[in-house]
């Protein structure tokens, strides 16, 4: 730092040194003259004693500013000056680097935030996810890595390995902070949550272990900082305030620390509720203390001196004992000996969880790495382009460099100068790239779905991201400068000084660069075509039902304190009212929403002349009689649900089911499906007593990709409405809102959207991949076409003389075109030959992201190759044509 | 004919400069003269290496420099020891004493056997 300051005030320093040295010599001379020497002799001896003054000055300058740094600053100044002299050249290079760096930085920011970033908690590296590997013989709900609450309590006693254990589950509650009831994302957590994570309050206090001792005894919540700021305007008196959670009064005891947004980057909670209040937070849930209900993720903080492996091995004896004890507990289900063996063979598994637990991470990790790879290749392409431009300029600067070499500059010094050029460019590109990255990140985040729970992703450029951008800029600078720098060092001095036209040196290298560019862009174009075809394929396939004028919304009366029978009555009333409305045609309800990625699923038992269990989960739903008609789903056989199928109140169980064609095909091949008896569950205690009364055509339940076996039960108390509207959806929304407001003004309406919108939401990953890979592929193609055009123009000019001679000797224009084009064809062919094996190898990595098209799809590859070839030939044709139009006499005079 | 002088050991020059300046502030030429007096008897110092050393010590913050009028009436750059320079001198003296002590010990050991 001090050294850089010295650079700024170097003029002062220099003059000071001069004065100092002059004073030294003058004093010495007068001293020597006093001792009797004549002045010239004295002056000679004085300077002799001091040695070489220039060398002394240099050594002092080295003290001021280290040698290499000084050279570097000189190089920078030289580079900057020469860039400012040719703005178009500079702009091209900076812009292509900025695009590459900006795209890579933006994608990396998502990779970092979703996949890599550790939670803002105390020592996140000590946090591990504790998971049950094997059959838990349990029912459950939630996303992944689920266990029961009692197991978490057991684990909290394992203090030989853990400094603390927490459990948590994400849910949505109806929250009222005074006025309206609004759905809010909540995290149900153990009392240890905040202390183990090491998160403190911004206001009031956070939950403590004592708040989680007795079920239903702690009606308290902690608010998230962002929620407090945005929804409650940061009210300072919020602590002690009463809020309604699902109509249950609870007290706000505090606000959590500002930077803490829960442990799931994809679902930021607005409030935390102690697990002891789970019955209030989840209507109809009373299984907090049930060991056979898995619904929470369990995480532990390892003790400082315990490794993950030690803890994992050390926990097994406790775990085995617990399994054994579980089988003897009352209430443990009757299971087959086989299943019991599987249950007892379960293990406990620990995985590092510094980033917390997130289903968004699980879903996005592969697409994000694919995109990151694409942008890295794009950046590589931009670097190659810049290297090509540098080589071109290198030939133009040949004379200058040769002269400097002849004057005694070392080749290393010249190479360093050229490298400084590219570094300066890359840093300028990086700066612009970071500026581009922020809006790009906003656009990227907009691709991700937003539900009640917002994600914690931010488009801000933080120091980590800046560091990343700096690193890749330097890498890009070195990468694009290394070839020209080496080239400069290799040139023969005499021949280049003697040469008059542009040197041949560098052309072969530039051709190699363009060849690599072509192969890179072919890979990206193939990828883009694959992802675009996946998206269009899914859109063309559709969900299997008619989405026109179809809207959906969800009610959850249970969260407003309705009992199951009250819920059922309300839903029926609303359903009837909607059907009677003039703005709607038909309506139906389902207990589970379609096209959200999730479903109610279970294996089933089927009784025909023999008893079989399904080899995989069947997707289940309970729907009202109007459901199939509203979606326009055709009955293939049998009949729809009607009054005969509905249960009278209080009667348990189900009477009848409708299955889809895929179910019939897989499990009842050839047999008449009507009358077959089935039931949910695969255990020996499963009683197949539900009659199949109808078969419907296949349609999408979880998402557009899936083709699954489905079974539907009758049930008109599900809160997910599907309505076929007359006129515009907006008009229908109005009248539906009124109907629900009339039924219960406190009832919030969730997920109000058209089915087309729902489909778009369900395809957000595919859309992101298709859009971005398409954009990047186009960019890559443009970059390599520019590179090719540059090289071909250069080659054409070089060969002008040769072409002129040939034409003078009678060659035709087309043969001249071919002469130049031949090179382009060779480069394209070589590039394609390099790219195709890479496409095959890389295809395996993206296979799971594709639909309806194989990564080695011939049509796709052929189309991409054709696109690329026509592009390259087009770019090469312009200089070739220009060369063929040359007048032989002009060409011969050209030199 | 002056007695043969051996070149100054690496790194000792800094210590000598600090030592000279610990007595009183001096300009470059003054320091050179003091060094000359020392070197006339024992070690040889290249005057050219004096100025880089002075600037290096100033950069490290051990010396501070000031332009002042000298006894000849001209302005000269006077160097003086800073607080940290004084500390550094003590450290160097100490380590020098330990080094030379150690060397003497080894020689004594060698002559006894």
Write a concise synopsis of the structure shown:
The complex is a heterodimer of chains A (895) and B (113). Helix content of chain A is 53%, strand content 15%.
Task: Describe this structure as you would to a colleague.
The complex is a heterodimer of chains A (895) and B (113). With 895 residues, chain A is of the alpha+beta class. Chain A folds into four domains: 64 residues; 231 residues, no CATH class; 307 residues, no CATH class; 213 residues, no CATH class. Helices cover 53% and strands 15% of the residues of chain A. In chain A, strand 16 and strand 17 form a beta hairpin. The radius of gyration of chain A is 37 Å and the shape is globular. Chain A starts with a helix and ends with a helix. With 113 residues, chain B is of the alpha+beta class. Chain B has a single domain, classed as Winged helix-like DNA-binding domain superfamily/Winged helix DNA-binding domain (Arc Repressor Mutant, subunit A). In chain B, the strands form two sheets. In chain B, strands 2-5-4 form a three-stranded antiparallel β-sheet. A two-stranded parallel ribbon of chain B has the order 1-3. Chains A and B meet through helix 2 and helix 4 of A and helix 2, helix 3 and strand 5 of B.
